[in-house]
TrEMBL record:
<dbReference type="InterPro" id="IPR045133">
    <property type="entry name" value="IRE1/2-like"/>
</dbReference>
<dbReference type="GO" id="GO:0051082">
    <property type="term" value="F:unfolded protein binding"/>
</dbReference>
<keyword id="KW-0547">Nucleotide-binding</keyword>
<dbReference type="InterPro" id="IPR010513">
    <property type="entry name" value="KEN_dom"/>
</dbReference>
<dbReference type="InterPro" id="IPR038357">
    <property type="entry name" value="KEN_sf"/>
</dbReference>
<dbReference type="GO" id="GO:0005524">
    <property type="term" value="F:ATP binding"/>
</dbReference>
<dbReference type="InterPro" id="IPR000719">
    <property type="entry name" value="Prot_kinase_dom"/>
</dbReference>
<dbReference type="GO" id="GO:0004674">
    <property type="term" value="F:protein serine/threonine kinase activity"/>
</dbReference>
<dbReference type="GO" id="GO:0036498">
    <property type="term" value="P:IRE1-mediated unfolded protein response"/>
</dbReference>
<dbReference type="GO" id="GO:0006397">
    <property type="term" value="P:mRNA processing"/>
</dbReference>
<keyword id="KW-0067">ATP-binding</keyword>
<dbReference type="Pfam" id="PF00069">
    <property type="entry name" value="Pkinase"/>
</dbReference>
<dbReference type="Pfam" id="PF06479">
    <property type="entry name" value="Ribonuc_2-5A"/>
</dbReference>
<protein>
    <submittedName>
        <fullName>Uncharacterized protein</fullName>
    </submittedName>
</protein>
<dbReference type="GO" id="GO:1990604">
    <property type="term" value="C:IRE1-TRAF2-ASK1 complex"/>
</dbReference>
<keyword id="KW-0732">Signal</keyword>
<feature type="domain" description="KEN">
    <location>
        <begin position="97"/>
        <end position="183"/>
    </location>
</feature>
């Protein structure tokens, strides 16, 4: 049952049939939709072999970390390790803009509390991945008139995740006070 190249590894091996097979197929279909027709396991003739070997390529979505995380989880070769349907629906990939901003605000507030503690492990971990998460410095990724606006109120370190979160939180909390061209 199922189309070649879209079946979970346990289906190909005639193993236990569970709801997890549908979630594997969902991972393939989701990738296909996001990329406009590409398949994570390659061309039609190599897909089943790649599925059995767990060899998939998410390069076309690498600039979408939420999509990479969700698709990777859905394509897990171990059916027991795939997320349940409700987990998929609650994944950040499907969050609205409001949910994403609310999450960032809450994280920023948490980081501010941590900042008051000397040698905060959370803050150290957060900043240890800053260059990977930000891709250098974040000032080059923002428009110049926005940067000049944030610089009026405080100095920020453009290589700091904490400071980027602080900017997001502050601008979100004071959105109505921002000039119209920045809103």
């Amino acid at each position: 049952i199922g189309s070649s190249g879209w079946r979970a590894p346990e289906q190909l091996l005639n193993g236990r049939q569970t709801r997890a097979i549908d979630l594997f197929s969902l991972g393939c279909v989701l990738f296909f939709c996001i990329t406009g027709g590409k398949h994570p396991f390659g061309t039609e003739y190599v897909r089943d072999g790649n599925i059995l070997n767990g060899q998939f390529d998410l390069f076309p979505i690498e600039d979408m970390p939420e999509a990479v995380d969700l698709v990777t989880r859905l394509l897990n070769g171990d059916a027991d390790q795939r997320p349940r349907a409700m987990e998929v629906l609650q994944h950040p990939f499907f969050w609205s803009s409001e949910e994403r901003l609310s999450f960032l605000r809450e994280v920023s507030d948490r980081v501010e509390l941590e900042d008051r503690e000397k040698q905060s492990e959370l803050l150290q971990e957060l900043e240890s991945v800053a260059s990977l998460a930000i891709g250098g410095t974040w000032d080059g990724k923002l428009e110049s008139h926005f940067l000049s606006n944030i610089g009026r109120y405080r100095r920020y370190k453009f290589d700091s995740v904490r400071d980027l979160l602080r900017v997001i939180r502050n601008k979100l909390n004071h959105y109505r006070e921002l000039p119209k061209d920045i809103q």
